[in-house]
Amino acid sequence: MRVNGIPYRSIWLDDDCWSVNIIDQTFLPHEFVIRSLKSMQEVAEAISTMRVRGAPLIGATAAYGVALAMRESADTGSLAAACAQLLETRPTAVNLRWALDRLKAALEPLPPEERCSVAYLMARDICDEDVDINNRIGEFGLRLIRGLWEQRRYDADVLHILTHCNAGWIATVDWGTALAPIYKAHDTGIPVHVWVDETRPRNQGAALTAWELQAHGVPHDVIVDNAGGHLMQHGLVDLCLTGTDRTARNGDVCNKIGTYLKALAAHDNDLPFYVCLPSPTIDWAMADGVAGIPIEERDAAEVTRVRGKTAGGEMATVQITPDGVRARNFAFDVTPARLLTGLITERGICPASEAGLESLFPEHGAGAT
Ligand code: MRU
Asked: Could you tell me the CATH number of the domain that includes residue 320?
């Protein structure tokens, strides 16, 4: 996607061909800062402090983290230690484990002197695959949006889509998951309008999704997290589209905290709620998402404080709670499959269920060898 007319991915190799450039998302939307990561430790820090975030981008960045670790030492102990340290950075998005398992399985059997170059190639492939997957999700999602637009009420002049958190191009390597269909619909002339949940506490909607949509010229309004139910009751939402950090085998979807409440409201109002799901985000070993998916709990300071731009243009952090107050910061929740209309994957759209997922990914089915 473009920033000030220049095409970017969210992660790329520097001209030196070994350091890894990222867009530091902690500065957005007010500053566009590119940071160069030169060690596995810097990669781990960037993931845990959310300079990079979003399930697919976390996986891609971790893959480059292994490559950087192999530059320093490529023995088997270093490989295991790098994978273990990177896996610790964030617990919920399964793309992290998926990428690390893939690299570890491929690198371990190799002689140490080959591991670094292969790790870089694999990290590049993971990035390219992610772009391809999201492009396909965008195409399937576009068909869905086009169908809804063609069935619109006679007096509708715009299709309202509600999204939560940021599942856009900067949460992936490019395109995004939930925003990919929206970009494509907008580009093909379907008049979409996006309701952007602010997504407290870190405001990924207000800060990142709004920044992306503004740059691409997609009409949108930021709303407070609790506004969605009201809008749905009054016919102002036609479709809900979100991403996911981990989807269990039974179709339960873990995503940013608050997604569950939006799905409940959509269900109560008979509105379609689809989740855009790249296959590396499916945890085939997780039978029941509500019971089993680990939910990250982050620093309470993210709840008690808010960071933003002052009227004078300075960046500042302010405290919004009484001094000494206790707070809890659950970063994700799980939406049970029964509340979802469907899952949009790179292979097509399916019901949110084990049978639905297996119909598109038979290689993971019960009968698969
Ligand atoms: O805590 P974050 O910002 O990493 O959470 C991101 C989300 O919840 C996204 O919706 C999810 O990763 C899908 S991104 C394509």
From this structure: 3.40.50.10470
Instruction: Tell me, yes or no, if 15 is annotated catalytic.
Output: no
Asked whether residue 265 is domain-assigned, the answer is yes
* Per-residue confidence (pLDDT) for residue 369, from 0 to 100: 61
Q: Is the peptide bond before 191 cis (omega within 30 degrees of 0)?
A: no
What is the three-class DSSP state of 211? helix
DSSP state for residue 86 in the 8-state scheme: H
Spell out the residues 6+ positions from residue 151 whose beta carbon is closer than 8 angstroms to its own. none
- Within-domain flag for 369: no
- Which residue lies with its CA nearest to atom 6 of ligand 1? 54
pLDDT for the residue 153: 86
Spatial contact of 69 and 37, defined as CB atoms under 8 Å apart? no
Q: How far apart are CA 288 and CA 296, in angstroms?
A: 17
The low-confidence residues of the chain, meaning pLDDT below 70, are 369
pTM over 0.85: yes
How many whole angstroms from 68 Cα to the centroid of ligand 1?
24
Judge whether 208 lies within some domain.
yes
Give the atom of ligand 1 at the shortest distance from the alpha carbon of 168: 15
Q: Which domain holds residue 31?
A: 2-128
Distance (angstroms) between ligand 1 centre and the Cα of 86 equals: 18
Residue type for 348, please? G
Ligand 1 contacts (CB < 6 A) are 53-56, 93, 165, 167, 171-172, 176-177, 204, 243-245, 255-256, 331
Residues 53 and 157 in one domain: no
Active-site residue (options: 174, 245, 252, 283): 245
Q: Is 141 helix (H, G, I), strand (E, B) or coil?
A: helix
Q: Is residue 276 classed as helix, strand or coil in its secondary structure? A: strand
Number of domains composing the chain: 2
pLDDT tens digits along 153-200: 889 999 999 999 999 999 999 999 999 999 999 999 999 999 999 999
